[in-house]
Amino acid sequence: MPPRVCQLCTKARAIIRRPKTGDHVCKECFFTVFETEIHNTIQDAQLFKRGDRVAIGASGGKDSTVLAYVMKTLNERYKYGLEMFLLSIDEGITGYRDDSLETVKRNQQQYDLPLKVLSYKELYGWTMDAIVEQIGRKNNCTFCGVFRRQALDRGAAALNVQHIVTGHNADDIAETVLMNSEDTIRRSKPLKYAYEKEIVMYAYFKKLDYFSTECIYSPDAYRGHARAFLKSLEAARPSVIIDIIHSGEAFEVAQDVRIKEQRTCSRCGYIASNELCKACTLLEGLERGIPRMGIRDGKRNKIEIELADQKPDSEMRTIPMFKLPSVL
Questions:
Q1: Mean pLDDT of successive 10-residue segments in the chain (328 residues)?
Q2: What residues contact 44, with CB distance under 8 A and at least 6 apart?
Q3: How would you label 120-154 residue by residue, b for 16+ Cβ within 10 Å and e otherwise?
Q4: CA distances from residue 235 to 20, 34, 247, 248, 306 in whole angstroms, order as listed
Q5: What is the pLDDT of residue 138?
Q6: Would you call 87 helix, strand, or coil by DSSP?
Q7: pTM (predicted TM-score)
Q8: Among residues 219, 309, 314, 322, which is most buried (max CB within 10 A)?
Q9: pLDDT score at 278
Q10: How far is it, in rounded angstroms, from Cα 163 to Cα 9?
Q11: According to the model, what pLDDT value does residue 303 have?
């Protein structure tokens, strides 16, 4: 059988079959359509305006590495006029995050972008290793997700940026819709419609430097079940990922539904729906030796606190007061 010809340029040999569309394309055409689709996502949603200071969430993994590379490429090609930074969060996971941060530091040199690293230890007084040692692996992702989200906002505030972009891809967002799962600093996902498989292919053919090991504490996370289910659906119907994203975009909240009023945490000043934000509640549980107090229902929590050996408030570590960037 003669080699397939690229369906786009009709000249070069096709070496890739796009998971997203099924088209057989050559390497250069794949690069072009992949980057153009991300540019179109940015333009259609009007994500940026000239002069914006933007923090790119950088973990060293394939998604954030591709995001940083493509954002730099598009910013130069289309003259977005963005001032960009890399922002990494060090959760304190030995053998995982310490290694991936070395990749981020190389990316910083490769892409010539300023880098800021903010650690859980610096912000909360705890590492994920220490948290897992105390609580085990059942609810560790709850702590990490809450702490990481606030850490990103605090890192962005320290950089005085008004916009964070993250490497969440189409698969990630479809999983979130299936899980039925907003922010002080604006967040966007330029890779929102990019398939995970195509991100891997792009990183491979571009020979990008990225870290490929999964978090050692995440194998049992609930998201993994949603991911496995999504992959089974995709095998039968490749368009299902985009279909699920569009269904999520079409969700509307009925007018008679009461939405909890957004408040400010009385302890750290971060966004909250109760007197204390989730991060302060979880941190207090760790400090008091009752790590489940931020996860379980209110009545049981009160009983546990009353029975526990109370640590004086003056000895409890708390999160520094949150201040919005001056550019907002």
A1: 90 93 95 97 94 96 97 98 98 94 97 97 96 89 93 95 92 64 74 92 96 81 60 67 69 62 91 92 91 60 48 76 80
A2: none
A3: beebbebbbbebbeebeeebbbbbbebbbbbbbbb
A4: 12, 21, 19, 21, 52
A5: 81
A6: strand
A7: 0.85
A8: 322
A9: 93
A10: 37
A11: 39
Structure tokens, 32: 């072009």
Token pair recorded at residue 314: 């003056």
Q: What is the pLDDT of residue 213?
A: 86
